[in-house]
Amino acid sequence: MIRRLVLPLFLLVIALSGAPSAYAQSVRWEPSGGTLAVGQTTELSLIFVDCEPTGDVTLPALQGITVGRPNRGEQSSFNIVNGQASRTRTVYLTYSILPTAKAPLQVPTFTVQTDKGALAVPAVSFQVGDATVGGTSMPLESAANSRLTVGEGTAWAGQVLPVTYTLSVTNRFPANIGSNPDWNATPLVLEEWSQPEPFNSVVNGETRNNVLYKSRGYIREPGTYTLGALNQLVNLRVPASGFSIFQSFQAEQFNITSNRPSVVVRPLPQPAPASFAGAVGDFKLVSKVVPQTATISEPITWTLELSGTGNWPDITGLPAREASRDFRVVQPQAKRTQANGALFEASLGEDVVLIPTKPGSYTLGPVAWTYFDPISGTYKTLTTERITVTVTPSVSDPIAVAPPVPALPSGTAVTAPSLPGPPAAPTPIPLDPLPGLAESAAPLSRTGLVALLAASVAWLPFLWLGLALQRARRQDPWKDRRAARAQLARTLAALGASRDPASTATLLREWQQHTAALWEVNRAAPTATAFTAAPDWARLWLESENCLFGPGTALPPDWVTRAEAALAAKRVPGFTPSSLFLPRNLLPFVASLAVLAVTPVGGADAGAAAYGRSEFAAAEKVWREALSQRPTDWIAHHNLALALAQQDRWSEAAGHATAAFVQNPSHPSVRWHFDLALNRAGYAPPDLAAFARPRPVHQLARLFSPAGWQWILGGAGLMLGLTGALALLHLYGRGPRWSPLAAWLCLAFAFATGATAAVSLHRYGLAQDPRTAVVWHATTLRSIPTEADTAQKTSPLPAGSLAIVERTFLGWIRLGFPNGQTGWVRNEDVVRLYR
């Protein structure tokens, strides 16, 4: 009996011992429940045990919460079960979540695709309550709050109102700003925010640190509006639990949401005067004629200038003027000038050139223009003075003496008969988007195609392998982490030898930057919570922060030794040369065909279709994706500028219009929108401003892009080489009799072409460098790539600045300027012209 039970019992033991490994694969959330706080950023990790996701993980649709891009991490552990050792591999995706509404959060069950097949993720739920600061019970509202005000609550339609935003943080917690104010101001036409102004105040006996932002805006249509709330991320250094002199501190990020101000917009009084064209504000109109005495055919300039403060985006032009038929009129071109980049302070000047054809006395003006004054609540009409112009016969006029003009009674005005001038052109607005992608070259002839194919056979395999190797190195997912690991080793070696506190602080910041890159933590100000999967790294990070920001806190004596040990345990795979034979590197065109198979044909036309349906945000998304794949697609830059302009985001639109212009300045639509966008944005890159109102030399330069002029300059060099070859053939008696003449002609053509190309290329200035970027809105130039260090030196950086992108780091880029100045800005603050 016992012998018969031995075999079944033995098989049962084997089955039970293998069960853990057979069913070890699982996916779960961590934490698996609990409480969250409105406005406070929290990390939620998706844990993969003994498996890993294949492709991107698509989360279920969640309401009342903002989810950031995941950070991927991995760790391994060893377990002993029934006397057998087994290795457990864990892959985790950590999401930064920000609850925006005080309502329970439910994450339903969903399925993810892993390398072990489809696995189900169990549902989790969280209760969302009011945020408190750190380990204290202080409500977030008491620690940090903000207030948004728009005027006094009532306004006229089109009236420019002051807009202020104040962020207030208690002095008990050191704080720094984690992001710029984020506000959808619709339907308010809003000016760019000013630079933040810090100040202190005392509220209920407590000192508070405040930051004030100023702007202006107006609403076009009457009605009652409740504007959206403004959001801003703030980093607070708070005690981990309670208050104590021995308490450790940690950084926490909160989303501060302002109030939602209401504005009652009243309609303008009716009926409005016939000369009223929609201007609201305070204006001045000046008329000037130079000269007031002229001869026949001598040009007379009649200048009309409107200036002041008001709703300039809705002011379409100056009033029409009348002149006698005895003048030949040169059509004017109005020029708008913004005051220091301000959207609502400008001047509009228009010069009419009158060329007299007959002698006599003529009256120009008056010119009337009506606007609405929101202070007095009435319409006001500006009227210029009458100006009398006297035209005399020229010296060469065959009529020596003009017939006398009979005298008129005193007080009678002498006015030449006049006819209505041509109707004024409408105010420029964006044109239609351009179809397709960038233009392609014309097809070759059959003979040329055969010659090209025959010439390309010999070098194609070598080029193929070279490109595959280059692509493999470029797409190596571990290259940035290897570079960060090598830099960490050098930094730790320097830290071990450092005895200067200032040098130690600088090296610790470098250690934090390279540690974030090694662990792929894509945050402007990472915290120790980003390294929950590696407790030793989290402890090192927390100790480095205490040393940098804590009062009189030094590094532990064994900190460098533990950091070196942690770095030695963190392995990063090296580059594998055989990866060039992977299909994605060796046959990239196959991947392109696969993309075409699943992407609708004419993907760029999807943007035009959305644009035609007035879905400008959707069109913007399509063209941004196109630019991420083809940065030199000037049509995508051009169309993206149109989509941004339709959303009144003129500053960013001007940046992309500038990129389209330098890539293809000869296209009429590109020129039109380049001029329009710069005019509405209120800035112009210094090296490119002259192209908006081009002189002949700039008209010549814009026939080709900087790249085109470089190719022409190279062609001039080839012509110089041909000149030398012809000269040598003649000197050695090998050339034909006409070789000297041909050499001189080639030399003249080479110098003329080369000089033209060099002069034209010089007109583009810094825009001829492929690394150039344009700063599309006013921002701050920082000496180090972080917003956490408030002691660093900063400088205001105006919109329209051109600079060279020297390097990038965790969402920051370092800019270099012609005068040698360098500094850091966020990547989203600039538009790259070519890359």
Radius of gyration: 35 Å
Helix content: 25-40%
Q: Spans with pLDDT under 50 lasting ≥5 residues?
A: 5-23, 396-425, 439-446, 448-460, 589-604
Shape: globular
Strand percentage: 25-35%
Q: How much is the average pLDDT?
A: 78
E-strand count = 40
The DSSP helix count reads 18
SSE blueprint:
Layout: H1 2-22, E1 26-30, E2 34-37, E3 42-49, E4 65-67, E5 71-81, E6 84-99, E7 105-107, E8 110-114, E9 117-121, E10 124-129, H2 140-143, E11 144-150, E12 154-156, E13 161-170, E14 175-177, E15 189-190, E16 197-203, E17 206-218, E18 223-226, E19 231-239, E20 249-257, E21 262-266, E22 276-290, E23 293-295, E24 300-310, E25 323-324, E26 327-330, E27 335-338, E28 345-356, E29 360-364, E30 368-373, E31 378-383, E32 387-392, E33 418-419, H3 446-456, H4 460-474, H5 479-497, H6 501-518, H7 535-549, H8 559-569, H9 583-586, H10 588-598, H11 603-612, H12 616-629, H13 634-646, H14 650-663, H15 668-681, H16 696-701, H17 706-731, H18 739-763, E34 772-775, E35 779-782, E36 794-797, E37 802-809, E38 812-816, E39 822-826, E40 830-832
Parallel strand pairs: 2-10, 12-21, 22-30, 23-32
Antiparallel strand pairs: 1-3, 3-6, 4-6, 5-6, 7-10, 8-9, 11-13, 13-17, 14-19, 15-17, 16-17, 18-21, 19-20, 22-24, 24-28, 25-33, 26-28, 27-28, 29-32, 30-31, 34-37, 34-40, 35-36, 37-38, 38-39
Helix pairs in contact: 5-6, 5-8, 6-7, 7-8, 11-12, 12-13, 13-14, 14-15, 17-18
